[in-house]
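To assess whether ligand presence alters the predicted conformation, the chain was also submitted together with NAP. Input:
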Amino acid sequence: MLLKDKVAIVTGATGGIGRAVIHKLCSEGAKVAGLYRSQDIVAEEIQSELAEHGFETSFYKGSISDEAYIAQTFKSIKDKFGKIDILVNNAGITRDTFLAQMQIDEWKAVFETNFLGTYMCTQEVLPYLLESSNPSEGKYGRVINIISISGVLGREAQANYCASKGAVIGLTRLLSREYSDKGIYFNALAPGLIETEMIGHLPENKRNGMINSTNMKRMGKADEVAGAVLFLCSSLSDYCNNTVLKIDGGMLR
Ligand SMILES: NC(=O)c1ccc[n+]([C@@H]2O[C@H](COP(=O)([O-])OP(=O)(O)OC[C@H]3O[C@@H](n4cnc5c(N)ncnc54)[C@H](OP(=O)(O)O)[C@@H]3O)[C@@H](O)[C@H]2O)c1
């Protein structure tokens, strides 16, 4: 059990990747709080799957860019589970369109969730991680920011998304410097094309183009991303700090 007695928060819990991450962390002994924005039925479905396995979880509905909701929710999680060790900033949205047509509202929406939401959850969790983290006692805090290969390589029709994920790389780098000596490690994970609802709107030719630009000539699975998240959450990655780990089937462009 890689995460026995660890308490983790996963945002974007009702999405394809969030769901797989929660299953993976729970199966390694973590107690997990899942945050989601709107999909009540999916949240209930995931909670019953997890309960069937005897996993200890709690789900909370609200927007990660709502400061009051985040403060109250993180306090409730600490009260319920006694501590917080891990934050997986996974919630994210796209509003893809070519740059010339991209409206300011589409920039704001994407930055509000992908960057500000990530920042606010991180800011809120830090005091709890500091309480929990003490390297001399073998305790630790971990923050894993799910970015995207688009934020590393850039991709057409995704200027807002690429910039928001790139901004999260900057945040990861800064915070990993500041908190490393306190035993809190920040890393970013950059998935390529992963089979979830998020890519449902992609036209087939674009999807095929992206698949063909990978060495492996296929999309990734949410469970494969979850495996990499588990690595970054656990002591398997004790010497990983300030990393941007790509999980993209060897995407070449
Ligand atoms: N799928 C890919 O190919 C891919 C590739 C690279 C990176 N990523 C990144 O991986 C992460 C997860 O992606 P996914 O494919 O699992 O996406 P998804 O299936 O569309 O799920 C997105 C999740 O984020 C939640 N969410 C969105 N806005 C929110 C907000 N303001 N507050 C709280 N929760 C919010 C959604 O909640 P509700 O559904 O309940 O509203 C949902 O749980 C994202 O950060 C994405 O950018 C995905």
